[in-house]
Amino acid sequence: MTRPRPRQRVRNSIRWKLLSTLLGLIVVLVVALTAMELALQQKTLEVELAQRISLMKETLLERGKGLSGLLLSQIENEVAALNFSQIQKLLKHSMAESPWLDYAILVNTDGLAFIHTLHPELEQEILTDEPDHFALSQASQTYREYPETGVIEYILPIHFGARRWGVLRLGFSTQPLQQEIARSRADLMAVTRELLLGSTVIAAVFILLGSGLVLVLSTTLTRPLIRLTESVREVGRGNYDQAARLMEDAAGSTRRELASQGEIGLLAVSFIDMANEVRQSQQALEHSNRTLEEKVRDRTLELEQANDKLKELDQLKTSFLSTVSHELRTPLTSVLGFARIIQKKFETSLMPALETHPDGKVRKALRQVMDNTGIIVEEGERLTSLINDVLDLAKMEAGRIDWNRQELALADVVERAMSATTALFAHKPVEFSKELTNDLPCITGDRDRLIQVVINLISNAVKFTDQGRVVCRVIPGEAELIVSVADTGCGIKPEDQPLVFEKFKQVGDTLTDKPRGTGLGLPICQEIIAHHGGRLWVESEPGVGSTFSFSVPLKPRSGDQPDAT
């Protein structure tokens, strides 16, 4: 069963668009021409009608003027003789002879009506209407139109010698004029209807001819587009074999015909060639996709194996560091302990006895032994600190570090750290001070770890500050407390500031600045502060100084790690 074509599809076709467009143009053109012709014709007829009305009005005025002139002299003579009956007969005779004369009114200067053919009952009455006052106020012959009553009234003043006696008013009806105007307008409407009917017939003929022309043109234009659309549909569905058969049929039987059909035919031929190339490209792409999938699987497997290997190596590295650190700590503790015993024995037993020895070489050897013993103790303590840092880092990376979280005051943490580092300022012209605010709120954290952070920041500050001062501050915030250690040392370059928080990274020239340590202090501090839900950052300017700050939230954040038990 054949499915009906959707109405929307038909309306969107090229044939429908051409048909609707050209028919619309034809209709608009015919309507515009017809409207222009009607407007010109109506204007011509209206001009002619206006001329005819003007001519008829002039004729009516001439007749009224002539009749008024004939009656005026006779009526003046009869008024002088006070023969009003003869005047009335004369007026009635004139109205009978002239169908245009509608009425006659004779009044004196006081407005007294002697003759009123329109309303005889008003004779011998004084007229007081506005037209009456207007007529009595005229000193010479004139006329006035009254469109509401359809009358043109001639006003004729009557005199006795040089004295004015009254006024004769003659009313001429304009009804014949209105009838002529109505007939002219009816003629205009009839001509308009005939013109409209003729224009409609002409428009229908043009529309029929245009429809036929559009159908022929649309059929000629859309035939190759229909074949092209069918091929496109098959290509879009992925039926390349069916599309190839359609294109091969078109190329074998109608390719030359398509090429000779102008731009649309050339478009169809170009699409056939392009579709063949698309089919070949699609086949090549499918082959490449299959090959690519195999390569991706191989590379993914290699990456997974490499990742597992890296995890294994990282675990081995952590285990190695932990084992080596523990193995080094035991003999180092013994060496450091014996060195301190030797140093104490020298100071308490040998030094007093040998300081007065007469042999200078013995005294010199004694001083060298004491200096070397001090160096052994100092380097042993430094090595112990480095081993502790390595152990802390290994525990943090393995997640095995113990946290002792409790409620504490940051001011107490700063005081403890400053007491532990006061000896570092003994041999340097550096002022060491603090700036603490009263009534600071308490926080929850690991006291020893936070003291370790502050001690590390103070040690770094005094290490790179030759003169000036180091200040510890605790600044309250809305939801956190901020601890900062500011110094007036050499400062850090902007490009080097992100490197200070990387493991085993030390800022400065190792040949001239001679930084001491392994570069693990700040990374360990960063791990401790991150565990507390805060952050660690630096603000520095070369030649001015540096400020290392960290924040600790007043309440534990939802992302904080739980306390180790």
What coarse outline follows from CA principal-axis ratios? elongated
**Structural domain tally:** 3
Total strand count, please?
A: 12
Would you state the CATH class of the largest domain? Alpha Beta
Can you tell me about this structure?
- This protein has helices at residues 7-11, 14-80, 84-97, 130-136, 175-237, 240-253, 255-259, 262-354, 360-398, 410-421, 447-463, 521-531, and strands at 101-108, 113-116, 142-146, 151-160, 163-173, 405-408, 430-435, 443-446, 468-476, 480-487, 536-541, 545-553.
- It has a five-stranded antiparallel beta sheet. It has a five-stranded mixed beta sheet with strand order 7-9-10-12-11.
- It has twelve helices and twelve strands.
- It is elongated and about 190 Å long.
- 17% of the residues are buried.
- It is of the alpha+beta class and 565 residues long.
- Strand 3 and strand 4 (151-160) form a beta hairpin.
- Residues 1-8 have low confidence and may be disordered.
- Helix 11 packs antiparallel against helix 12.
- The chain has three domains: 15-182, Beta-Lactamase (2-Layer Sandwich), CATH 3.30.450.20; 238-401; 404-553, 2-Layer Sandwich (Heat Shock Protein 90), CATH 3.30.565.10.
Attribute tags:
12 helices; Heat Shock Protein 90; 3 domains; 15% strand; alpha+beta; five-stranded mixed β-sheet; disordered N terminus; Beta-Lactamase; 565 residues; five-stranded antiparallel β-sheet
Give a brief rundown of this model.
With 565 residues, the chain is α+β, with helices and mostly antiparallel strands. The protein has helices at 7-11, 14-80, 84-97, 130-136, 175-237, 240-253, 255-259, 262-354, 360-398, 410-421, 447-463, 521-531, and strands at 101-108, 113-116, 142-146, 151-160, 163-173, 405-408, 430-435, 443-446, 468-476, 480-487, 536-541, 545-553.
